[in-house]
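Dear colleagues,

As part of the handover before I leave the project, I'm documenting each prediction I ran so the next person doesn't have to rerun anything. This entry is a single chain, and its sequence is reproduced below.
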Amino acid sequence: MTELLVPVVSITRTRRGRYLWAAWWTTPPRRVPFQQPDASDGGSRSPEDALRAAEQQTGRSFRVIEPIWARGWNRILRGEAPFSSADVRALEGGGRPARPPAPPSLWAVLGVEPGASVDEIKRAFRERAPAAHPDRGGDPEVFRQLHEAYERALAKRQRR
């Protein structure tokens, strides 16, 4: 099985106010034909929880992409066409552009709760760093984001 250089996850809010994630790591998502995700799940209380659940369930680190892909998968699960006409226009670059996803919080990047201690922050970084490190086959951008989140989290704890 081949893998993408950077596994991706799309997160969207459902009708019930929970969050669904859909992740691709073997092939990128595509519109025609719609590329089914390699894994997905719903029920998270926040986008950060959804990202954390995706990473825990798959054992991978993800780059978050537009929510339009998770919305498409959610529509398929409901027996509908994956994209509305507005979604198609956004995907083709016409009409109103899709709103960019909010970047994940530094706590979500590290996989810890916002009230985590310095020891928990350090432990989380040590657990995630090897998989993300470029020298071990990880993505340099993912590692940079992880390291930046680590430094910012430590700085926040030291200001307390």
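Helices lie at 47-58, 68-77, 85-91, 106-110, 118-132, 140-159. The longest helix spans residues 140-159.

All the best with the project,
I.
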